[in-house]
Design a protein that fits this description.
This protein is an alpha+beta fold and 66 residues long. 30% of the residues lie in helices and 26% in strands. The chain has 2 helices and 3 strands, in the order E-H-E-E-H. The longest helix is centred in the first third of the chain and has 13 residues.
Amino acid sequence: MTGWVVIFKDTSVASVEMRKAVLEEAGIPCVVLNRQDSSYIGVGFANVGIELLVPEEYLDRATTLL
């Protein structure tokens, strides 16, 4: 996704979704990118993070909020 940057990364969906709600409430566009494969949940190498992304121009404001 060109022009978007990762602002937060975690393995917990709930943790990422909470932060997404905060950003949305403030009017900051954001998207969750879940790279986890449900076939491998619980396997050590499969703990790939779930990423929260915002457009580059909102990075400073979003960082302050989170």
